[in-house]
Amino acid sequence: MTLPSIIKPDPKLDLVLERIVDVPRELVWKAWTTPKHMLPWFCPKPWTTTDIEIDLRPGGIFRSVMRSPEGQEYPNIGCYLEVVPNERLIWTDALLPGYRPAPEPFMTAVLTLEPSGKGTRYVATAIHRDEAGRKKHEEMGFQEGWGTVVDQLVEYIKKEM
Amino acid sequence: MTLPSIIKPDPKLDLVLERIVDVPRELVWKAWTTPKHMLPWFCPKPWTTTDIEIDLRPGGIFRSVMRSPEGQEYPNIGCYLEVVPNERLIWTDALLPGYRPAPEPFMTAVLTLEPSGKGTRYVATAIHRDEAGRKKHEEMGFQEGWGTVVDQLVEYIKKEM
Are A58 and B91 in contact (CB under 8 A)? Predict the structure, then answer.
């Protein structure tokens, strides 16, 4: 089981994307935790990511700005909760940097990476406050969007890292 | 400086109680992290604490139930964020156990303990979402309430531990 025991996804509330990718987990980790390596793939095209800020420690900032094809920008700010290099990254937008309760909490995200042959078992879990949060995220296209992001990530790693 | 560098209290938003107490920090830590040692002092009398649940690890539950003199019960549930034995305990009600975003976030609390002579420098910091949160907590009697709790804690340690 990939998930840490403290995380118990509830199918009514949460969403999970699992993929086997043919790139090593050390590069997936690096791509997820280095702004310059994250900008190119973090949003499903034709959306783009215009800014990423990372302070990679519990309570440290994780901020991103996504831009729609029409040029509208959507900033998101939160903080990391757990940072286990090459294995597990947990962050939330329910807390701002320094663990300050946030005005508009939406989800906690858990990324877990395990070796799988020469590649990586990649599991991304989105944990929501309630069923409405899960439904909204589904309607925003969680499976397709997060899936496309994995494709873009793998393509980027193969070409550029 | 007692606080970890990730915590930056803002006087407009946050509240801090600092005391030097003449009991060793190992006992303060034990009293703060063991339900049977916590029940007797956690609420300013004549309020009482009727239940405490502790899973002492990041993401683990911290749940308490306070009872008013009239018999009304007030449950509070959250999770730990950082657990550094004898030094630092951070928890929040912005996240439920397993880091699930909570329906009614109010604060993150930071308890830091440092040796001070034969006693302990005890600093409790309450971090709120906004100015309204800080004001509400002030009006609930933060300084007096949290101060009384320290007195009760010290008295309990001296008598019972």
Answer: no
Residue at A130: amino acid letter: D
- Contact across the interface for A133 and B94, Cβ inside 8 Å: no
Chain B: closest CA distance from residue A137 (Å): 14
Whether residue A13 lies within 8 A of chain B, CB to CB, comes out as yes
Q: Does B129 touch chain A (CB under 8 A)?
A: yes
Tens digit of pLDDT for each residue in A76-109?
Answer: 999 999 999 999 999 999 999 999 999 989 999 9
Q: What is the DSSP string of B14-26?
A: EEEEEEEESS-HH
Q: Has the ipTM of the complex gone over 0.90?
A: yes
Considering CB atoms only, which of A6, A94, A98 is closest to B101?
Answer: A94
∠ Cα A93 A26 A19 (to 5°)? 70
Tell me the H-state helices in A5-94.
25-33, 35-38
CA distance A5 to B99: 12
Confirm or reject contact between B40 and chain A (CB < 8 A). Answer: no
Judge whether B84 and B26 are in contact, CB under 8 Å.
no
